[in-house]
């Protein structure tokens, strides 16, 4: 994290699962007794900071939570992974093996974050200051909820796909894992049960975090994440209410130029939550895969079919750079300013524009195109400022199609593609199949082979063996 030298300590985790290929190397070699590691408020604070650091790692918001889910959902005739790495190519082609190390890393890092949070929550009694204890508890719950949300949306079927109370989600663990024993043989909880835990944790975080908390999660970060989760579940009333809470707080404002959101070294007026990178501490796989040389690999190419999805004159349709032989790249993770190393810039996770789009969608679904709803505004009042700043004419009224078109253009390549594909019941494609519906088993990640080897109670997802 910026201005903080973070030592990611396995000692705060008890057991730290990593994304390496040492499948059975489970002995916590670098651990010390948890009663020593979490015996002081300072150590607990450091453990929480370590949780944020893990959340910003390459297997989380520093990479996989965003780019891996995007190339998974994107039609391959729009977005193509053209690099030499086999694992992300499998994801882009919707042909993932259970031994894919990127998928294993996504899983293990998420549970690493969850276990850090669980350890913190189990040790709060050593903190005498009530305000500090309340804040750290809320931050730990925020971290746990975010990790679970990113797990269940890829390893479980969509909330609108069948019965979420019967569909298997992911193992739900809310107590610390400190030793390797039979208690780790946890079955998959239902999709509904996992979402219930996410909502409970985020609600507690919202109600107990301060309104401002530096670049860590605040009460409005939790509200914004709740709005995203409720939208994924199709609960438009609560999604709109949480988005409205963030908007009406007055703590954030839209940039006049959408490009100001990207390639930043600090949080801006529109930023609700961002992963903090610096010259000495960074993890930015979007820059690695989306950026051309010398900073990136230029592996993810944007094709003409994607450009055709933008309205004529839309500035967002020009936020690309043609690199010649390596194809067309996006500029959201690459700056025209040669003095800026994109790998060392912040990664925006939530910004105010998303809240306007969520409130607009909620209102158009609940009250209709031209009727004021949540927040006392019409849908068009939320989307016109977004249109005007990208050189598009304002609309007189906004239909659901208008709102969804704005959402697709505004939030492209920011990690929303998979959740939107599923909740909107769309289709995608790959080089192997011309049409893949939203509820196809190919669009659910396989439970990693390394996990099923050590936990026989994990039920495989359909289509994998």
Would you mind describing this structure in some detail?
Strands 1-5 form a two-stranded antiparallel sheet. The protein is mainly alpha-helical and 465 residues long. It starts with 33 loop residues before the first helix and ends in an 11-residue tail after the last helix. It is globular and about 60 Å long. It is 41% helix and 7% strand. It has a domain at 10-267 and 402-454: Serine Threonine Protein Phosphatase 5, Tetratricopeptide repeat (Alpha Horseshoe). The chain has 16 helices and ten strands. It has helices at 34-37, 41-55, 64-73, 86-92, 101-122, 130-155, 191-208, 219-233, 236-248, 285-290, 304-307, 352-366, 379-388, 400-410, 417-423, 449-454, and strands spanning 79-81, 168-171, 188-190, 271-275, 300-302, 320-322, 328-330, 347-351, 427-428, 436-437. Helix 7 (191-208) packs antiparallel against helix 8.
Per CATH, which architecture of one domain? Answer: Alpha Horseshoe
Major sheet details: 2 strands, antiparallel
Radius of gyration: 21 Å
Q: SSE string, helix = H, strand = E?
A: HHHEHHHEEHHHEHEHEEEHHHHEEH
The top level CATH class name of one domain:
Mainly Alpha
Task: Give the arrangement of secondary structure elements.
Elements: H1 34-37, H2 41-55, H3 64-73, E1 79-81, H4 86-92, H5 101-122, H6 130-155, E2 168-171, E3 188-190, H7 191-208, H8 219-233, H9 236-248, E4 271-275, H10 285-290, E5 300-302, H11 304-307, E6 320-322, E7 328-330, E8 347-351, H12 352-366, H13 379-388, H14 400-410, H15 417-423, E9 427-428, E10 436-437, H16 449-454
Antiparallel strand pairs: 1-5, 2-3, 4-8, 6-7, 9-10
Helix pairs in contact: 2-5, 2-6, 5-6, 6-7, 7-8, 8-9, 9-12, 12-13, 12-14
């Amino acid at each position: 994290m910026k201005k903080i030298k973070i030592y990611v300590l396995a000692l705060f985790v008890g057991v730290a699962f990593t994304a390496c290929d040492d499948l059975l190397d489970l002995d916590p070699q670098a651990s010390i007794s948890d009663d020593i590691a979490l015996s002081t408020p300072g150590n607990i604070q450091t453990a929480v900071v370590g949780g944020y650091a893990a959340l910003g790692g390459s297997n989380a918001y520093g990479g996989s939570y965003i780019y891996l889910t995007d190339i998974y959902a994107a039609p391959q005739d729009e977005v193509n992974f053209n690099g030499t790495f086999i694992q992300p190519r499998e994801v882009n082609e919707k042909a993932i093996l259970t031994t894919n190390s990127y998928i294993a890393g996504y899983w293990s890092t998420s549970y690493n974050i969850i276990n850090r949070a669980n350890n913190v929550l189990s040790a709060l009694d050593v903190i005498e200051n009530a305000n500090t204890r309340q804040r750290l508890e809320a931050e730990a719950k925020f971290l746990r909820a975010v990790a679970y949300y990113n797990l269940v949306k890829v390893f479980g079927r969509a909330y609108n796909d069948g019965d979420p109370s019967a569909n298997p989600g992911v193992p739900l663990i809310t107590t610390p894992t400190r030793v390797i024993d039979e208690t780790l043989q946890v079955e998959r909880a239902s999709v509904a049960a996992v979402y219930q835990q996410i909502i409970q944790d985020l609600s507690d975080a919202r109600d107990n975090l301060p309104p401002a908390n530096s670049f860590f999660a605040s009460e409005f970060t939790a509200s914004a994440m709740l709005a995203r989760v409720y939208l994924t579940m199709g609960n438009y009333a609560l999604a709109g209410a949480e988005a409205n809470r963030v908007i009406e707080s007055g703590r954030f404002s839209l940039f006049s130029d959408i490009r100001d959101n990207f390639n930043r070294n600090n949080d801006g007026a529109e930023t609700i939550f961002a992963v903090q990178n610096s010259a000495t501490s960074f993890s930015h796989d979007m820059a690695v895969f989306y950026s051309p040389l010398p900073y990136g690999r230029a592996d993810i190419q944007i094709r003409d079919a994607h450009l055709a999805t933008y309205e004529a004159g839309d500035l967002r349709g020009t936020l690309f750079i043609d690199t010649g032989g390596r194809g067309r790249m996006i500029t959201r993770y690459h700056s025209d300013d040669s003095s800026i190393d994109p790998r060392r810039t912040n990664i925006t996770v939530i910004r105010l524009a998303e809240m306007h789009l969520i409130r607009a969608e909620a209102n158009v679904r609940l009250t209709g195109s031209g009727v004021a709803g949540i927040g006392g505004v019409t849908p068009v009042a939320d989307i016109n400022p977004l249109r005007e700043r990208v050189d598009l004419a304002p609309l007189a009224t906004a239909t659901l199609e208008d709102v969804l078109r704005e959402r697709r253009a505004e939030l492209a390549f920011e990690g929303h593609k998979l959740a939107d594909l599923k909740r909107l019941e769309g289709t995608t494609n790959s080089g192997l199949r011309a049409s893949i519906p939203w509820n196809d088993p190919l669009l659910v990640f396989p439970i990693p082979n390394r996990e099923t080897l050590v936990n026989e109670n994990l039920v495989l997802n359909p289509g994998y063996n």
